[in-house]
Protein: Prolylcarboxypeptidase
Amino acid sequence: MWDVAEELKAMLVFAEHRYYGESLPFGDNSFKDSRHLNFLTSEQALADFAELIKHLKRTIPGAENQPVIAIGGSYGGMLAAWFRMKYPHMVVGALAASAPIWQFEDLVPCGVFMKIVTTDFRKSGPHCSESIHRSWDAINRLSNTGS
Structure:
């Protein structure tokens, strides 16, 4: 995307998902009250991105009539695809890289994604997948402690 954007004189914008990084809708209290977490949804994120695009088109000279393409990977890829479906009037296309778009109940068995990931790790080097598998015990043990 970097090379293509430069070649096409396109602007790349990386939007931060609410509740991640500095985008805390309720400041330091964003995680203290479960009612605040009602706004931590993919639908809310899509609405945020729609507002951001409108704002950029309104405030950046020459941007008003320029086409927009949503791009993302993994969960971001899901958001890109969903954005194109929900707001087709705002983006001319979406690139959903590594997005598990078929990972829905009754379409694909739940464990298929993890089998694919494990296969990738096995191909990356000897004992890689086994090392990752062994790390889960340590992660679970640490996550169960108070600290």
Summary: The chain is about 45% helix and 5% strand. The longest strand covers residues 69-73. The chain has two domains: 1-101, 109-146. The chain has a mean pLDDT of 89.
